[in-house]
Design goal:
The chain has about 325 residues and is an alpha/beta fold. The chain has a single domain, classed as Alkaline Phosphatase, subunit A (3-Layer(aba) Sandwich). It is built from 8 helices and 7 strands.
């Protein structure tokens, strides 16, 4: 299940965008079935994901529009998730990417029916991250500026959380859920890894990076996905890939979208197009791995977005 954050229906090649190049997604669509009448349960992240995971309306299960990075709540623990259902049916389960249904261990994927998890627990604008400078910036000055910005993110806490005020003013969160400046989750983005012990099945939760490095995140995601598929090629599995792309990043980032060095300044759509190209590359590698292991004819692939573009960001939406 491939789930892209803040993707517009018309942003892809096969839906007619004049400059977007998404060859792997186009091929997936052209060799499959395009469902053009699909509705999200909510226009923002946490609630739409809660519905996807449970099949229930957000208001019915008490999920606000968006969970902040420092709150102590999440998807109610009495709710059954897709991960729970697949585990019950004997599937191995994994998630790569943005969860956004609570970031305390009891609410994270490892406690909600998933065997393993690698990703950002919430939106990529809810804290600062690093961006290792690449060699293919358009100018040396851009590289210098990017390095300055990256260093600022690591050394300076963000005092104002514009994204949170925007969400609350739109009625998508509980204004009583104040962000604690003492909680690093509200300052620096973590890259979280979860797995269960092979012997006693105990859950191990590790913060691999904080702040995480956006520049190398695609490599980590790609390796995680390929490794999971390879390990479970002889048994049924459910792989949920909710990308953090193409959601806008924190205002301290050098660009409003993120991607690795192989995709920076490679498209005619700027940072947004570069981020979408990285998504297409990751999807292409997923399909290639399925084909390599002779699994493609026995695997159902679903691709969609969470709730449409964030229009206030204009060309970056």
């Amino acid at each position: 299940m491939l789930f892209v954050d803040d993707l517009g229906y018309g942003d892809l090649g096969f839906t007619g965008h004049p400059t977007t190049k998404t060859p792997n997604l186009d091929k997936l669509a052209n060799n499959g079935k395009i469902l053009s009448n699909f509705y999200s349960a909510y226009p923002v992240c946490s609630a739409s994901r809660a519905s996807l995971m449970t099949g229930r309306q957000p208001d019915r299960i008490g999920v606000p529009g968006v969970f902040g990075p420092t709150v102590n709540v999440g998807l109610p623990l009495n709710e059954t998730t897709l991960g729970d259902q697949f585990k019950k049916a004997g599937y191995a389960t994994a998630i790569m990417g943005k969860w956004h249904l609570g970031q305390r261990q009891m609410f994270l994927p490892g406690s909600r029916g998933f065997d393993t998890y690698l990703g950002i627990p919430y939106s990529d604008d809810m804290g600062g991250g690093r961006a290792t400078p690449c060699n293919n910036y358009k100018s040396e000055q851009e590289s210098v500026e990017a390095r300055k910005t990256s260093n600022a993110i690591v050394t300076k806490a963000k005092s104002e959380n514009e994204w949170y005020h925007e969400y609350c003013s739109a009625g998508f969160c509980d204004e009583n859920d104040k962000i604690s400046n003492e909680d690093p989750a509200g300052t620096y983005l973590p890259l979280v890894y979860q797995t269960h012990d092979t012997h006693d099945h105990s859950l191990n939760t590790t913060v691999l990076e904080q702040p995480l490095d956006f520049t190398t995140l695609d490599e980590k995601y790609n390796n995680f996905v390929k490794d999971f598929i390879t390990k479970h090629k002889d048994s049924p599995f459910f792989l949920y890939m909710p990308f953090s792309h193409v959601h806008t990043t924190n205002t301290l980032q050098p660009e409003q979208q993120y991607c690795g060095c192989d995709f920076k300044n490679k498209t005619s759509r700027g940072a947004f197009g570069d981020a979408l190209a990285e998504v297409d590359w990751l999807v292409g590698n997923l399909i290639e791995q399925l084909q390599l292991l002779d699994l493609s004819e026995n695997t159902l692939i679903m691709f969609t977005g969470d709730n449409g573009p964030w229009m206030v960001h204009n060309e970056s939406a």
